[in-house]
Amino acid sequence: MQSTGGGSAPLQARPLFGGALSAVIPPGATDISELREIPDNQEVFAHPHTDQSLIVELVEYQAQVADQDAARYHFEDIAGSNKALQPGAFEVSGLVALSKPELALAECSSAWMLTGTQCVSKFNEEARNTVTIHLGVFRLPQFSTDVLITFNDPQSISPDSSSAFAMEPHRELWTLQDFQSLLQTLTLHEPGLFG
Length: 195
Fold this sequence. Notes:
This is Ran guanine nucleotide release factor. By secondary structure, this protein is mainly beta. The protein has helices spanning 67-81, 176-185, and strands at 13-16, 21-24, 30-31, 42-46, 53-60, 90-97, 110-120, 129-140, 145-156, 187-188. The protein has a 7-stranded antiparallel beta sheet, sandwiched between helices. Strands 1-2-10 form a 3-stranded antiparallel beta sheet.
């Protein structure tokens, strides 16, 4: 029998970008790069039984964007690529600064966590799904990089969506706590990663 919570072994940090970074990824996550080609600046993990996903992404540092606006800037950029920019298709419900002493990534100048929702369709389908997006942004101006960590957590799936079959009830879903653990354990091992 598996123990849950309390007495379980500490979760292992998983190497990211060839070991240049590492972080605790929820157990059982599927590494999407083993299934299909993904961009070199991304690490993508999917929940084995639901449409939840986690993306760690290295993007260009946006010097013109103030630290407190960076998460919203990147959230709107994600909304654009999700074709969720029309009025009412995306909304920000929370933004907090992350406390640096709680973060393993000491190199960041600031870190932020945004929570919002976007109405997105998968594979250009008509059907739109409401997805809660938790977005962590680590600002690394000295490396001209922002590190984005996105947790996509679908809330309502249109019955016409190809994702409808993927939602199995009573499976152990990833939680906000899993996401926060990833944010807190993100560690830089090789600054050369940033070129």
